[in-house]
């Protein structure tokens, strides 16, 4: 990633231009062509340096006030299969694998589930239990949100 790539990412992550041709707007700021901006973004995506361009929605403001981190105990041989099923759900925003601590904490897959009601969240968890056959999990509900940001360049 060179300096121009970094500038493009910073502009898009901090204040995506809400204009008819946002990449032309970025190009004008950087004194390069719109085509170059688009090609650079495509290369960054292809290299895996950026995943996608998308809006960041504040789910609590939309009424999704119930959020739970669910830690699952998933046998290693089915982690990939289980996680593919998990990530198909729209109200599941995170799915991570973490190391277990034998004898202390043996949950290795973490999901974050959002719902408008506690019942919505529990329904989703029961659905995940049903489609995966997993029965060993812990639910940790959010009580208060202190900070919500994404890593920036």
Defining key terms:
153 residues; 37% helix; 4 strands; alpha+beta; elongated; Alpha-Beta Plaits
How many domains? The number is: 2
Helical content, roughly? 25-40%
The name of the CATH architecture of the largest domain is 2-Layer Sandwich
Low-confidence stretches: none
Number of strands: 4
Helix-strand topology string: HHHEHEEHE
Q: Could you give the order of strands across the largest sheet?
A: 2-3-1-4
Anisotropy-based shape: elongated
> What is the C-level CATH assignment of the largest domain?
Alpha Beta
- Tally of separate helices: 5
Annotated CATH topology of the largest domain = Alpha-Beta Plaits
Q: Give the overall pLDDT as a whole number.
A: 91
Structural category is: alpha+beta
* Largest sheet: number of strands, sense, barrel closure: 4 strands, antiparallel
How far the N terminus sits from the C terminus, by CA atoms, comes to 11 Å
């Amino acid at each position: 990633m060179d300096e121009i790539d970094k500038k493009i990412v910073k502009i898009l992550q901090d204040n995506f231009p809400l204009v008819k041709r946002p990449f032309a707007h970025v190009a004008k700021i950087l004194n390069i062509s719109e085509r170059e901006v688009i090609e650079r973004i495509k290369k960054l995506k292809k290299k895996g340096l950026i995943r996608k361009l998308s809006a960041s929605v504040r789910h609590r403001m939309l009424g999704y006030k119930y959020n739970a981190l669910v830690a699952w105990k998933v046998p290693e041989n089915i982690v990939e299969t289980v996680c593919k099923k998990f990530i198909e759900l729209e109200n599941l925003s995170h799915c991570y694998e973490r190391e277990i601590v034998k004898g202390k904490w043996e949950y290795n897959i973490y999901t974050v589930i959002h719902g408008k009601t506690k019942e919505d969240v529990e329904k989703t968890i029961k659905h995940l239990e049903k489609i995966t056959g997993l029965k060993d999990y812990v639910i940790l509900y959010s009580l208060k949100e202190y900070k919500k940001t994404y890593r920036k360049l």
